[in-house]
Amino acid sequence: MALPSQTGFQDAASPIMEELIHFHDHALMIVLLISTFVAYIMIAMTTTTMFDLYTLDSQEIEIVWTILPAAILILIALPSLRILYLMDEINDPHLTIKTIGHQWYWSYEYSEYENLEFDSYLIPTQDLTPGQFRLLETDHRVVIPVKSPIRLMITAEDVLHSWTVPALGVKMDAVPGRLNQTALSAFRPGIYYGQCSEICGANHSFMPIVIEAVPLQNFEAWSSAMTEYLL
């Protein structure tokens, strides 16, 4: 989860989020180098006393400022495209979860488990127990096994929503009448918080997402208990 006054990303809990953070740092260093170079050129040009009235063009400079930006764009585009395809790649998922956005809560269906479906509502502030977080806790968490590729099928029943969990590198729009697909994976146990990231109405800020990643045996015990409870 985010911390007070945090300015950077949340700690990565999935391979995709790690790749996104690395790409962010890579792009930021390129931006820093370009900004420093441009600042130096501006200062040098405004403070120099040397000039040449008879220089009309320079083929060498033309070549440099054409080739150099193209090379920089390639250095940014190649890793960006790689991550884009990794985010779309879903090979042999172990579990499929259908997520449906409503005004203003989420509902979940575990496709491989009969009758395992539930709604997930925000826990009101007055009902929170010590250690729970205001506006982030839900009455039912989405439990997933760690180190397992999971396919998310995301849609909405009424208006646009967006299912987002920053620590796992997942952000996918929930569109009425459309089924969007994305991959989800957590490489360590933990509880990861997210929120709807598409302005969807008056209670947009009151539909959080809580993912609980647990070892496989704990997930199987939870799914069995949850199925019996729902029956």
TrEMBL record:
The keyword DNA repair does not apply. It catalyses: 4 Fe(II)-[cytochrome c] + O2 + 8 H(+)(in) = 4 Fe(III)-[cytochrome c] + 2 H2O + 4 H(+)(out). GO terms for biological process: ATP synthesis coupled electron transport. The chain crosses the membrane at residues 27-51, 63-85. It is a multi-pass membrane protein. It is found in: Mitochondrion inner membrane. Residues 92-225 form the Cytochrome oxidase subunit II copper A binding domain. It comes from the Eukaryota. The keyword Lipid biosynthesis does not apply. Its cofactor is Cu cation. Keywords: Copper, Electron transport, Magnesium, Membrane, Metal-binding, Mitochondrion, Mitochondrion inner membrane, Respiratory chain, Translocase, Transmembrane, Transmembrane helix, Transport. Belongs to the cytochrome c oxidase subunit 2 family. Component of the cytochrome c oxidase, the last enzyme in the mitochondrial electron transport chain which drives oxidative phosphorylation. The respiratory chain contains 3 multisubunit complexes succinate dehydrogenase (complex II, CII), ubiquinol-cytochrome c oxidoreductase (cytochrome b-c1 complex, complex III, CIII) and cytochrome c oxidase (complex IV, CIV), that cooperate to transfer electrons derived from NADH and succinate to molecular oxygen, creating an electrochemical gradient over the inner membrane that drives transmembrane transport and the ATP synthase. This is Cytochrome c oxidase subunit 2. It comes from Neocyema erythrosoma. The gene is COII.
